[in-house]
Amino acid sequence: MTDKDVEGTDLRDGRIGEDLVDIGLTSVRGPLWAREGLAPRDRSLVTLGILIALGAESELKTHVRVALTNGLTQDEIAEVVYHSSGYTGFPRAVAARTAAREALED
């Protein structure tokens, strides 16, 4: 698996800690996303919710783009953000909305 395997997103930037890309792709992306049981679309929904709850906006930006590739619409991604506000709190939802907007502008 390569850094281009995440829906064409280039995860490498030539800066410090770049090997983290390979670590993530081999330890998370491969074993978890390739499992049977959930469709990629469903995994994207779950992942978005988790990243919002964690306040992981940098990862959320990448996964918003992945979610679009996996069949979610922008309206559905917005609904995930809205829904999360009741469970993660308004500040996390606002931060997620900002991250999603930035991801969609790229």
Automatic annotation (TrEMBL):
<dbReference type="InterPro" id="IPR052512">
    <property type="entry name" value="4CMD/NDH-1_regulator"/>
</dbReference>
<dbReference type="InterPro" id="IPR003779">
    <property type="entry name" value="CMD-like"/>
</dbReference>
<dbReference type="InterPro" id="IPR029032">
    <property type="entry name" value="AhpD-like"/>
</dbReference>
<feature type="domain" description="Carboxymuconolactone decarboxylase-like">
    <location>
        <begin position="26"/>
        <end position="102"/>
    </location>
</feature>
<dbReference type="Pfam" id="PF02627">
    <property type="entry name" value="CMD"/>
</dbReference>
<protein>
    <submittedName>
        <fullName>Carboxymuconolactone decarboxylase family protein</fullName>
    </submittedName>
</protein>
